Amino acid sequence: MTTRHRTTAAAAVVGLVVAGVHFGGVSSAHADDVSPSVPPGTEASASAPVPVKADSPRLKLPQGGTLAPPKVLDLVEVVEDLGGEQRRQETNETVMMALQSEVLFPEDSAVFNAQAAARIQAIGNEVNQSKATRIRVFGFTDDQGSYEHGKELSKKRADAVHAELAKTVTNPSVVFDVRGYSEDYPIADNGTEEGRKKNRRVEITFPRGAGGG
What we know:
Blueprint: E1 2-8, E2 12-13, E3 16-18, E4 21-23, E5 27-30, E6 66-67, E7 71-72, E8 76-81, E9 86-90, E10 94-100, H1 116-130, E11 134-140, H2 147-168, E12 175-180, H3 193-199, E13 201-207
Parallel strand pairs: 5-12, 11-12
Antiparallel strand pairs: 1-8, 2-7, 3-4, 3-6, 8-9, 9-10, 10-13, 11-13
Helix pairs in contact: 1-2
């Protein structure tokens, strides 16, 4: 059973401005010393806005109104299973699969449990269908314990997922970006065990659609 949460939906969004008011062999890349300026997977879309003719009468601009600069917002759809063990997030350009650490590893361990391989293989098969050339595997922990221990554990878990994923991914030129972020970029409240459980996760992100890179 799944629950669906639609967080943002837009195509080309054009704001109106009236009197100043807007309306509207597998290789692997390891880069642990480089942290993104925004949480992984939330980078701005590179897609260009849909062209809009400013003089089109169909816009029905108020007298004196002008168009604000157009921009594109990603459509983001999140599907999470009832227990929160697996979370799927899709945008216009990428698919991100987040697996809670408990469904992959014993506590404080980076050694797979018995059920983990099948989950990773299923994701690998979807990666093959997308013909992805670059895959991100990022590990995260909660805020319990030291940051340094979380950094080491999250990286080891990301490495383990990468190694298992590489057994299924068939594209010999695909590049893996494998990182561990410790307690950085939480997706839930670390003040509760339910939130900490969601934050202990490994995320696998790849472009959606054929030929994405």
